[in-house]
Amino acid sequence: MRSTVLARRLRIRDLPPTLTRDIASNEFSSFLKQKMLHFGDRKVGVVGCPVHHGQAKPGTEHGPDALREGGLIKKLMGLGLDVHDYGDVGTPSHEDDHHFDLPVKNPKHVATASENIAADVYNVIKSGRTCLALGGDHSMAIGSIFGHSLAEPEHVVVWVDAHADINTPLTSSSGNMHGMPLSFLVKELQPYISKLPGFEFIKPCLSAKNIAYIGLRDVDPGERYIIEKLGIQSFSMSEVDRHGIKDVVEKAMHYLDPEGVKPIHLSFDIDALDPSLAPSTGTPVPGGLSIREGNYICEELAATGRLTCVDIAEVNPSLGNERDNLITVNSALSIITHCFGGRRQGTYPKNYQIPIPTHTNHVAPPPS
Length: 368
Known about the structure:
Elements: H1 2-13, H2 17-24, H3 28-35, E1 43-49, H4 63-69, H5 72-77, E2 82-88, H6 107-126, E3 130-135, H7 140-151, E4 156-160, H8 181-185, E5 211-216, H9 221-230, E6 233-236, H10 237-243, H11 245-256, E7 264-269, H12 291-303, E8 307-313, H13 322-339
Parallel strand pairs: 1-2, 1-3, 3-8, 4-5, 4-7, 5-6, 7-8
Helix pairs in contact: 2-3, 6-7, 10-11, 12-13
GO molecular function: arginase activity; manganese ion binding
Family: Belongs to the arginase family.
EC number: 3.5.3.1
């Protein structure tokens, strides 16, 4: 018995400290498989979603280009990824775009953009690529999540945001549709959703039990009621402060997918981060996630190997000054790269070799 325990201790001692904690929780084998995935095998499809009619501040339509100009594609390719940029989806305009019975703003604009986004996201995922959808305001998630559901119906959603974005047209006080995307998708809410022009294509595709929020700190009364009545898993900044981001992510994923088999959709609103890290966004709320916490969420989801669609929303380069824009874009790029294999301990492309000096024919063995 003693020798068995000693042998186990020796094996554990040779492993990084982060792995020993998972042995203690009987999750070592699955965790090891996840952590040993090679991200260089991943194929990524980038889809720009230049939508802004879901809220009142122009500029989110420039978010995709701001991220590209910030070096997005180069950073992803630097991780050894096969990256294809499919350009931006079409977002046709509608001159007469208001709803006479409800204070909902620009429903036709949002519906048309959502249908186009859904088609592109579906095509990217079905082609075997992980989809990266660049917003755009967060109404883009109507299309991205619906398109994902058409390709992978059993997927779960991790929603990282300062806001819950689950108002219905009747609970919203602003009428801005970037605060409503989940309500159009959640099956249990359909009796409470008003008919809006252009939304006929949307079919409820998401059960409340398949959603987990992280980072909430500005939730409307109607949204709080919906979250509690539907039993949606919710980790506000209070829970992040109380338990730490590691426990929050573990609890969220254990709740959503205890067997570790379902595709994951990450919808990340840049205002989930503290405004000091993302000043160029339309609805900043103090007391947000640190960049370390945001990156940790993405690292852990990426390590599962099941992250098949990522939204990055609400980057607005028209807000703030040049420095604000730079800070916000850099934060968004950090979040994105950590979704696709960027790791703070460092990484390297697949098949990387240490260069050998040209003046020798010696074949160096790999470092031990």
